[in-house]
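Inverse folding, one chain.
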């Protein structure tokens, strides 16, 4: 390989060094893509990509989600002031994303992955954590694995924000509304089969709010127990401390992630490029189920 790989002391993840993402030829990218499929998380320090450079790099992984080609996830307003109001819808989404999730499970087509980079980081904290759902699936006892293989969960951003007390407005909101106006509620199996590697993983996260066929109380308890189990083993959880210029690429089909707390009086600006999923493999059944 034209670059170096240093696996984390975890069940997943690798640090990539001796690489310039701006000057990656096709054979080198194919090697990088293979490492991504194997390790699920690429950590690439000291890249300092511009928005356009990140977008171009992300597109090599596949088509990007419209409107999310290169979007800032930030507690900084366009005029440079910090977001302060408790009712600020962007802060509600940021606080919601401090809980374990996969991107776009609440959409008809789940995301394939994401490229994420650090533009401004707080003096401390503000990490991003990742959890390996392949390892979590294998760690399930046989009875729970068999049961999960037969069950599906509904996913909703509206429901997950409401459960956290972080409801966002669907009209005239500063948040641009992605995920709040979905027609139908996606229903996704708890057992995810990776379309490129064939690996099984546990498909769970904060957006899963109900299990088909179970009562509301029973399904929520089941979802919560699964999620708590999935992130309970330090060997399958990694928390990345950001430095400006870092780039990470995660496989959204087999990892959970969450942002970690920081002092909101300090700016944190991250650039997110979301890789679109293939409708044939990441599409969900859509239900007209009413949200509680």
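Residues assigned per position:
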């Amino acid at each position: 390989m034209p670059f170096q790989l240093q696996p984390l002391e975890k069940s997943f993840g690798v640090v990539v060094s001796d690489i310039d993402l701006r000057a990656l030829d096709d054979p080198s990218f194919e090697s990088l893509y293979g490492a991504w499929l194997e390790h699920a998380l690429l950590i690439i320090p000291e890249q300092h990509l511009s928005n356009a450079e990140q977008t171009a790099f992300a597109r090599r992984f596949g088509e990007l989600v419209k409107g999310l080609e290169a979007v800032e996830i930030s507690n900084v307003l366009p005029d440079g002031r910090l977001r302060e109001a408790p009712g600020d819808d962007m802060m509600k989404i940021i606080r919601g994303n401090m809980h374990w999730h996969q991107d776009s499970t609440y959409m008809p087509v789940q995301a394939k992955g994401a490229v994420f980079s650090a533009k401004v980081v707080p003096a401390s904290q503000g990490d991003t954590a990742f959890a390996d759902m392949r390892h979590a699936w294998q760690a399930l006892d046989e009875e729970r694995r068999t049961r999960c293989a037969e069950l599906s969960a509904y996913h909703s951003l509206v429901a997950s924000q409401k459960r956290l007390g972080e409801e966002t407005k669907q009209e005239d909101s500063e948040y641009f509304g992605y995920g709040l106006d979905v027609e139908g509620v996606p229903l996704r199996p708890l057992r995810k089969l990776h379309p490129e590697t064939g690996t099984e993983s546990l498909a769970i996260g904060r957006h899963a709010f109900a299990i088909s066929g179970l009562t509301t109380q029973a399904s929520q308890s089941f979802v919560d127990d699964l999620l708590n189990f999935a992130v309970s083993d330090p060997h399958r959880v990694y928390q990345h401390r950001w430095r400006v210029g870092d780039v990470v690429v995660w496989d959204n089909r087999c990892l959970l992630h969450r942002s970690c707390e920081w002092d909101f009086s300090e700016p944190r600006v991250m650039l997110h490029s979301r890789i679109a999923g293939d409708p044939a493999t990441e599409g969900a059944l859509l239900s007209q189920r009413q949200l509680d």
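The chain has one domain: 4-287. The mean pLDDT is 95.
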